[in-house]
Structure to design on (344 residues):
């Protein structure tokens, strides 16, 4: 791999696309040249990167000539169609969508957890789902110390996790409610001219559905957490169940995570392990009412963890509260860390 690669960003105008540019810039990623790709709707738009204006190009079959690394974040359908073309043109693809994550031939990588998996790539490396990434960064060191037997996770996920249209929906509904001062008991509000992309009103609300329902009555997001966690932790024996919930928050996902371990781990031992774990930051001082919050995690890189306490209903159990910026560690940062491993 070229030490100073030509980089393409597919979905450069989206929430994750913007985060990609910010993270590449902040980390001084050695970009030789950058190509910003999006739909025909964005063709010609100017976006700043490292002080210079770059014009957005429409994604077409020939977009990947001379590209070394292609960072994809424009949805699974686009990845399925264009990632193989990028690979054929000689690029390595780091894909943010769900298109290839469970493909046995495609590594699913979180650099703090399974960096070696990258070596098995045949052109495509998958970036896991945002809610999975922040959880496994915290759980892997505990798994290594005490072997996790079972995980029960409930997520509280922000609107930006569903892209810019969901953020627009949250803004518009919030403005309308504040303007009218109506709490709309019993009925959702409708905002003219704004596409409702989430299944219900998200402002001042909580929706127990992320993505579509599957035949087993779970949502696709919940099953992503189950299947991706096992693949990344390289342990199919871990039992996992998830409930994924959308909340009226702009950025950062939060998760209440309960684990049962084979070996006993006290909250103090777990805290000590996590204080020394890469990508993890412990914020856990209940005497000062300090714990991770989505508003504090937004714009930051770590998986923040707090409220570490024993699950007193079982012999070897812990409860944790994990929060991270879904656009950064949950998407762009993790992908850029993978790209850094590629050029190392
Ligand atoms: N948001 C998150 O927290 C998160 C986390 C992990 C993974 N992801 C994944 O990242 C992807 C994008 O998410 P996002 O939040 O950035 O969504 P978004 O804000 O809605 O942006 C979507 C991007 O895809 C582009 N796009 C749409 N249709 C296209 C087409 N036909 N050809 C080329 N480009 C097209 C859009 O370009 P236009 O502006 O031209 O329409 C835009 O740049 C999804 O696969 C999502 O699952 C998101």
């Amino acid at each position: 791999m070229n030490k100073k690669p030509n980089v393409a960003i597919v979905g450069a105008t989206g929430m994750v696309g913007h985060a990609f540019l910010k993270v590449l810039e902040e980390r001084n990623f050695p970009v030789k040249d950058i190509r910003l790709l999006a739909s025909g709707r964005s063709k010609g738009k100017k976006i700043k990167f490292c002080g210079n204006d770059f014009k957005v190009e429409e994604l077409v079959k020939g977009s990947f000539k001379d590209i070394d690394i292609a960072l994809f974040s424009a949805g699974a359908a686009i990845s399925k169609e264009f990632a193989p073309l990028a690979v054929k043109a000689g690029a390595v693809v780091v894909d943010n969508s769900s298109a290839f994550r469970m493909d046995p031939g495609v590594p699913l990588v979180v650099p703090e957890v399974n960096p070696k998996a990258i070596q098995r790539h045949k052109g495509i490396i998958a970036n896991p789902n945002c809610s999975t990434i922040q959880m496994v960064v915290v759980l892997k060191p505990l798994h290594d110390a005490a072997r996790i037997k079972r995980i029960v996770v409930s997520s509280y996920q922000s609107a930006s996790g569903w892209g810019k249209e969901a953020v627009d929906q949250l803004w518009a509904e919030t403005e309308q409610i504040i303007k009218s001062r109506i709490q709309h008991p019993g009925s959702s509000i409708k905002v003219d001219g704004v596409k409702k992309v989430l299944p219900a009103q998200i402002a001042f609300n909580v929706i127990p559905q992320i993505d579509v329902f599957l035949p087993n009555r779970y949502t696709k997001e919940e099953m992503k957490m189950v299947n991706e966690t096992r693949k990344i932790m390289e342990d199919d024996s871990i039992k996992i169940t998830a409930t994924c919930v959308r909340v009226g928050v702009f950025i950062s996902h939060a998760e209440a995570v309960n684990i049962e371990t084979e070996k006993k781990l006290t909250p103090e031992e777990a805290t000590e392990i996590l204080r020394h774990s890469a990508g993890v930051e412990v914020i856990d001082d209940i005497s000062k009412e300090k714990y991770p919050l989505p508003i504090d995690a937004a714009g930051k890189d770590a998986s923040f963890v707090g409220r570490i306490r024993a699950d007193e209903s079982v012999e070897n159990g812990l409860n944790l509260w994990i929060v991270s910026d879904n656009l950064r560690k949950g998407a762009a940062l993790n992908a850029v860390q993978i790209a850094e491993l590629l050029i190392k």
In short: The longest strand covers residues 148-157. The radius of gyration is 20 Å.
